[in-house]
Amino acid sequence: MNRKICVVTGTRAEYGLLHRVMENIKDTGGLELQVIVTGTHLSPEFGLTYQEIERDNIFIDKKIEVLLSSDTPVGLSKSMGLGLIGFSEAFDELKPDLLLVLGDRYEIFSAVAAAMIARIPIGHISGGETTEGAFDEYIRHSITKMSHLHFVAANEYKERVIQLGEQPERVFHVGSLGVDNIKNLNLMSRSELEKSLGIKLAQKNLLITFHPVTLENATSEKQMIELLAALEKLESTRLIFTMPNADTESRILFELVKDFVTNHDNAYSFVSLGQLRYLSCIQFMDGVVGNSSSGLTEAPCLGIGTVNIGDRQLGRIKVDSVIDCKPDRESIGNALIKLHSENFKKTLVNTSKHLSEGGASHKIVKVLKDFSLTNIIKKSFYDLDKRKQQENKYGR
Asked: What's the whole-model pTM score?
């Protein structure tokens, strides 16, 4: 009997990372893929990106609506409640053998909580990472504690998952799915990208993605205003915006970007570029700007510099191609000057040495197929202090 692996995806960026994993599950004997889409995939405001999944010939087993017409804390909390109801019903019908999720989104938390109560084993990708400027931090570590198999991108993250009390033999260092995608995709040429976007790239180009900052002192609105003020000075630069995640204060960020684009001939915005266009776009940029995790992984892998604004990604592994700056126009402006400097450009060579060589999706699927699920639900806490005591006792 095939082992049923249920994958949940709620955003365009998350699906971009999970796509190869889904395809490999489909192509692996002994495994059966189930797919549940939720979140912004089902929202016209965010581009109805579930259609991209269907265009990739991936069958969607269930669609669970959770988004409300509100980006307030109350609205998001209600969305989590709707998700808990919807996922519990979906799992009861689909009866997966294992749930596979990625990351730290609130809708993913609802899926994992429902699976935990239903005693469904959970595999979690990208645990152990830190983002101290967003409540994703709390959600990610909570998902880790509810999960039974862990797939991490770096040894540092593996150690952190173990520090949370997870058994080492259940934590797998598989590398970065973002790097995996880059190594296996045939990216667009410059002319193909320009035709697809419907715009002509300039001599200088920047890709901007700024997500809500849910834990920082300054509001997302204030930080976006500061970013746009810094970008406004770049009249000879093509500015390409991708819209933010559906988090608290996301709608005001949408409006600020739309207004900026309307009043600046060198600026364009896209609700969703999709994985291929997004990665293809990065390779022709002078840099990526904002607070997206792609600036810390995909951009360095493609040899492109990053201006990382504020604390949203605080705690993640960074290489020399990442320029950290404060969320004010002066700091952002200085970071943009550094981004274009000749001395900085020289540092972009070999910036991805800390990243994996690819193969993450195959490594994940191999574990999904081969790891025994017998008695996996009941977990024992891996106590680091007791381990050290035992090592000292036996002289290890």
From this structure: 0.82
